[in-house]
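Researcher: Let's do a round of design. I'm pasting the structure tokens now; please hold your answer until I've finished.
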């Protein structure tokens, strides 16, 4: 550790009797004054020791030990300019006997952002020192990286989010929902409503919403989330209905600081709950970041078993309670990114594999720097520094990135409205995460328009597995699920008493990230005449052979038929207007029959099934566009009538 070097160095300086002046004999009076300075230092009288050492230099300005001793005192007093000045002066007199001074000087220059000079002095240290201090090679690597980064800056043009969000108080730790229209952040309140200073500053959460007029004036999140105690370092889930945050020294806490969460129900935040063990321990847990699918919670902790002082950990969601609350366990250390130093402020992007975080150990520009690491399936990659001037020689942390991967948000004390403000900037292309879209929708009864809260599933058609599922808010029927690019998805919505609903999202091809999927899902009650489109039944062009990806949806149809044995159904085939009417009518009938044949093979009575082809006679969209034609090419499932049991 650096400060131990200074202790040992100063003690060494004060323990010699002229040995440091190897090239000449020390004047006895100078030596006596130097020894008196030593005694003053040992008594904790630093000011008197400084005066005495300056007197020594007046008597002999080539007495290097006095310069090094002064540098050590100024180090402890955090007077870095004076410390550096005396290191330079001492080294100018004698650099051979005390090469460690170059190392200490390089530390100061690196911290100040004078990277080129720091590199030069570190190389001098390596040439002269027979024994290399721990950390010197790491410092050289950081200084060389920083020097290169400053000479090759990345595009960085931060813009203040404005007075609706930022004030003369400190605003920091921004968090966004997937739609990027709700911003939740922490504000440190130092004065009351009359302008009087508070004895104990108060950290609370504030929220702002974005519309065509811009960000609304931020309002307190209110009770029961905000309390007379401090709350901070929060993240909001992709759908905006789950908030994780940090609170310290609470009665139900496990350690100094714990992670809590609250759920929004019927438009209101519920009473926060401690996330409990194994996420929380007797250590310090903070700065949560939840993945868009809710499966993983990343956080910073100094708990036992880590690699360094502060590590980033990940907890996996192990279950969901009957009331819809997440339960997290299986906590693992993110070994690939953690170091013997400090890693903190993790942010997992909605793509599920791009992790941004801060570190004071990986090669950087000084203090805490921001890094990105990506999980391509075989673990997280070696972290990449975000570069200069996103990173500086000061502490830089708390970065988040919206689902588009283009817009980044962070807090800074750069010029603004006072204190720390929240800023936005466009993230350089090479530092962006993978593209992510999302589907946002509202589910309601087709007849009454009453909001519904059925199970909504996103299925990965390539792996035939559930990617994520949720239930809409019963208050308004709203839901949101993120869709990382590069996969083919099916959406299924099911609830008792209604026909199922399906959609198809093919993200294996290019798509407009700025145009997410917005759905109004009117569920049809189980009654004669109700119809739903089988959007995940697929055929090749001009073919009636079912593609393998269809079987997931067909199993859903089969399950409905088995649960509702009294219903007779019609399977209807529809085409777009490409081709002749005769051809389209024939093809649509053949496709409907293919579905009927599948159900019959699975044991459904032929008396309950009718196959009909309608060709292009019943379009549901404009046939002049590619999207419209795709919507018109569909297979439908219609309830015809109830049958007597003996009819089957």
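Researcher: That's everything. Go ahead.
Model: Designed sequence:
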């Amino acid at each position: 550790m650096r400060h131990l070097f200074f202790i040992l160095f100063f003690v060494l300086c004060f323990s010699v009797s002229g040995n440091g002046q190897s090239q000449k004999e020390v004047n006895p009076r100078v030596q006596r004054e130097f020894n008196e300075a030593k005694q003053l230092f040992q008594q904790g009288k630093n000011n008197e020791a400084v005066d005495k050492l300056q007197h020594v230099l007046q008597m002999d300005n080539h007495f290097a030990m006095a310069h090094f001793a002064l540098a050590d005192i100024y180090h402890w007093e955090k007077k870095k300019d004076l410390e550096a000045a005396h290191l330079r002066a001492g080294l100018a007199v004698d650099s051979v006997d005390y090469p460690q001074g170059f190392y200490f000087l390089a530390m100061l220059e690196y911290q100040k952002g004078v990277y080129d000079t720091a590199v030069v002095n570190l190389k001098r240290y390596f040439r002269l020192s027979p024994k290399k201090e721990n950390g010197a090679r790491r410092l050289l690597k950081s200084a060389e990286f920083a020097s290169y980064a400053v000479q090759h800056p990345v595009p960085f043009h931060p813009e203040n989010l404005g007075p609706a969000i930022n004030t003369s108080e400190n605003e920091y730790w921004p968090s966004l929902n997937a739609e990027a229209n709700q911003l939740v952040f922490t504000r440190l309140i130092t004065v009351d409503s009359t302008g009087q200073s508070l004895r104990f500053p108060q950290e609370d959460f504030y929220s702002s919403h974005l519309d065509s007029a811009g960000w609304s004036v931020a309002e307190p999140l209110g009770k029961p989330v905000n309390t007379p105690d401090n709350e901070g370092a929060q993240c909001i889930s992709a759908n905006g209905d789950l908030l994780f945050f940090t609170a310290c020294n609470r009665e139900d806490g496990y350690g100094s600081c714990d992670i809590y969460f609250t759920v929004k129900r019927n438009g209101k935040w519920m009473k926060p709950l401690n996330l409990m063990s194994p996420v929380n321990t007797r250590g310090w847990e903070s700065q949560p970041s939840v993945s868009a699918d809710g499966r993983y919670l990343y956080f910073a902790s100094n708990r036992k078993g880590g690699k360094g002082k502060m590590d980033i950990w990940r907890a996996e969601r192990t279950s969901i309670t009957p009331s819809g609350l997440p339960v997290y366990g299986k906590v693992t250390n993110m070994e690939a990114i953690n170091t013997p130093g400090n890693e903190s402020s993790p942010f997992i992007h909605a793509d599920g594999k791009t992790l941004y975080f801060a570190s004071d150990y990986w090669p950087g520009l000084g203090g805490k720097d921001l890094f990105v690491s990506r999980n391509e399936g075989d673990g997280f990659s070696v972290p990449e520094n975000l570069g200069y001037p996103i990173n500086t020689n000061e502490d830089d942390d708390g970065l988040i990135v919206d689902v588009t991967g283009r817009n980044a948000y962070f807090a800074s004390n750069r010029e603004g409205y006072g204190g720390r403000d929240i800023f936005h900037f466009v993230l350089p292309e090479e530092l962006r995460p993978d593209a992510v879209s999302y589907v946002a929708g509202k589910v309601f009864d087709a007849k009454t328009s009453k909001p519904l809260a059925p199970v909504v599933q996103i299925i990965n058609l390539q792996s035939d597995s559930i990617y994520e599922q949720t239930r809409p808010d019963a208050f308004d029927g709203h839901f949101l699920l993120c869709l990382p690019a590069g996969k083919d998805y099916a959406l299924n919505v099911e609830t008792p008493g209604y026909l199922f609903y399906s959609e198809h999202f093919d993200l294996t091809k290019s798509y407009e990230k700025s145009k997410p999927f917005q759905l109004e899902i009117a569920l049809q009650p189980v009654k004669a005449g109700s119809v739903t489109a089988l959007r995940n039944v697929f055929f090749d062009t001009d073919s009636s052979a079912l593609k393998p990806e269809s079987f997931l949806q067909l199993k859903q149809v089969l399950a409905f038929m088995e649960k509702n044995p009294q219903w007779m159904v019609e399977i209807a085939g529809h085409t777009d207007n490409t081709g002749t009417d005769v051809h389209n009518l024939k093809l649509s009938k053949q496709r409907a029959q293919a579905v009927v044949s599948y159900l019959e093979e699975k044991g459904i009575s032929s008396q309950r099934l009718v196959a009909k082809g309608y060709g292009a006679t019943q379009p549901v969209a404009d046939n002049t566009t590619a999207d419209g034609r795709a919507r018109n090419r569909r297979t439908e499932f219609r309830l015809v009538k109830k049958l007597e049991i003996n009819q089957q």
